[in-house]
Design brief:
The complex is a heterodimer of chains A (466) and B (53). Chain A contains 17 helices and 15 strands. Chain A is of the alpha/beta class. With 53 residues, chain B is an all-alpha fold. The chains are: A alpha/beta (466), B mainly alpha (53).
């Protein structure tokens, strides 16, 4: 993970209550004295235990603050060591179901907080993280003491980060790519304009998006009076949360018939070959060192399951939103599989302030092991990436690679070549593949898949000085 | 009003204040309705259990 000069983590500087840092090789959360009252309430009201036990809030332990910490960071109230999240992911990488589950989990946290006299002071989607299929609030400093009559400061942020992307997703999932460019969620006015006229007929969308956007425009320069204490009643606040919860829980996304959604019913493996491939890959995964596995082109996660069965936390990446949705629905209760929507041709970049608030995929690596099954022909043929560049690409992202070579003669590769000049891919064959990858990897194991033209390798990345 | 570190947006706060009364009333009615349903359901179950004896 990327760190700055003093060990501070790039994405946690905005909140004056504290920030994340790397300390003695471990992640820690520093709390400033200004947050003392709120932290004490969180810990003494029973809210922390309740949320932790419900799996809603990342658990932490308090650790000693040293003189060196104070010299380096100034005034410190507490230092926490949060439980490690195996892989940090961002809302623009989640499927529809994940964004919906994260939104509902956040509203549940808000409801439980209100019952114990606290409220969420912020609600950006990246405060939620997934551990397998479970959304969890990763920011312990998101809570503050609730004062009756106060409106929800994070209402607009919640709508921009969760509600609008979910509504736009149902219209055209590609609209949610706006989340990549808009650091504070999709602006209300933009979202309001992009939604179809039918959305005006839904009372919930009308209030929380369209009227909300109009109010933002109408009162943009109005200073809200300070000291006002009788604004939004407690029932009003609970009603707002309840309305948002009902609206979001009722949203469904009808999966489009996409190229990959039905892949395993359209592949070219015989039953014997498929069983053999599973055995080969399963054995290679059992032999893999412990650590996070990145499954590139995972489809619905069939082989991610093998990695999880071998005890590896597995990030199961695919470009296709329908495949990711299938994958998430299959792994909603799984602890070790995290489905993500990643376009390998155009991975998530580093973005936000200084390009470091959200990390690029590469910065979140390297993975201990990567799986690349039935993938290389798509990158090499359909996407025109030379084999040598593919070898470099994989070497930047993993220490060990389990990769399936799909030769030109394979019917799936033939499909990609049917409208292409085969001469352009003359060096796309097994000897050239091995030669290209030998520059960056050593071959540990090689297996031919029976009743198939395919070959599966275990490769170990060479040390840079080799 | 407590000032947070994020800008809540004046329109967002004003909308909550304007719509809050109606939303609160609807929530209250919904809560009482649910309590009513729970009570009726419990009474129904109790009657059913009593009838079996």
């Amino acid at each position: 993970m990327n760190t700055k000069r003093f060990g501070e983590i790039g994405g946690s500087f905005r909140d004056p209550s504290g920030f994340m840092l790397r300390r003695q090789g471990r992640l820690a959360r520093l709390i400033r004295p200004v947050y003392r009252e709120h932290y004490e309430r969180l810990m003494t009201s029973g809210l922390y235990e309740e949320l932790r036990d419900a799996g809603r809030l990342i658990p932490h332990r308090e650790i000693a603050v040293t003189d060196a910490d104070r010299t380096q960071y100034g005034e410190i109230y507490r230092m926490l060591e949060p439980e490690t999240i195996p892989f940090i992911s961002y809302p623009y990488e989640w499927g529809f179901g994940q964004l919906q589950a994260a939104a509902l989990a956040l509203l549940d946290i808000q409801r439980r907080s209100l019952a114990r006299g606290m409220i969420l002071k912020d609600a950006p989607a990246w405060n939620m993280q997934f551990i397998g299929g479970r959304p969890v609030l990763a920011d312990t400093l998101s809570f503050e003491i609730y004062r009756n009559g106060e409106p929800w400061q994070a209402y607009r942020q919640f709508c921009q980060h969760f509600l609008l992307p979910l509504l736009l997703w149902r219209q055209d999932y590609r609209l949610t790519e706006l989340l990549l460019y808009e650091i504070d969620g999709i602006p209300l006015d933009t979202g309001s304009r992009l939604l179809s006229w039918r959305s005006w007929l839904s009372p919930g969308v009308l209030l929380h998006v369209h009227l909300h956007a109009l109010a933002q425009r109408r009162y943009a320069n109005v200073k809200t009076s300070s000291g006002r204490s009788s604004g939004l009643s407690r029932n009003g606040m609970l009603g707002l949360i309840d309305q948002l919860h009902s609206l979001i829980a009722g949203l469904t996304w009808k999966l489009p018939p996409t190229e990959w959604g039905d892949y395993y019913h359209r592949h070219n493996y015989s039953p014997t070959a498929l069983t053999a491939k599973e055995q080969i890959v399963g054995t290679m995964l059992k032999d893999a060192p412990s650590g996070v596995v990145w499954d590139f082109g995972a489809n619905d996660g069939r082989f991610s399951d093998l990695a999880a069965a071998a005890g590896h936390y597995t990030v199961s990446m695919d470009i296709d939103p329908a495949a990711v949705e299938h994958n998430y629905r299959n792994h909603r209760n799984a602890d070790l599989v995290l489905p993500l929507r990643i376009d390998l041709r155009n991975e998530s970049p580093g973005n936000g302030w200084d390009g470091r608030e959200r990390l690029s995929l590469t910065e979140r690596g390297p993975a201990e092991t990567a799986l690349a099954l039935a993938l290389i022909h798509h990158l090499a043929i359909a996407n025109n990436v030379p084999l040598s560049r593919l070898a470099d690409w994989f070497a930047d992202r993993c220490r060990r690679l389990i990769i399936e070579f799909v030769p030109r003669e394979d019917s799936m590769a033939q499909r990609l070549l049917q409208n292409r000049d085969a001469a352009d891919f003359a060096d796309y064959d097994l000897p050239h593949f091995e030669a290209a990858f030998a520059c960056r990897f050593t071959i540990r194991h090689r297996e031919f898949v029976p009743e198939s033209t395919r070959v599966i390798y275990t490769l170990d990345r060479r040390n840079e000085d080799e | 009003m407590m000032i947070g570190y994020i800008d809540p947006g004046s329109g967002s706060l004003i909308l909550q204040l304007l719509a809050g009364g109606m939303i609160g009333l609807m929530f209250l009615i919904k809560s009482y309705w649910q309590r009513c349903k729970q009570l009726c359901s419990r009474m129904w179950q109790a009657l059913g259990a009593h009838g079996k004896h």
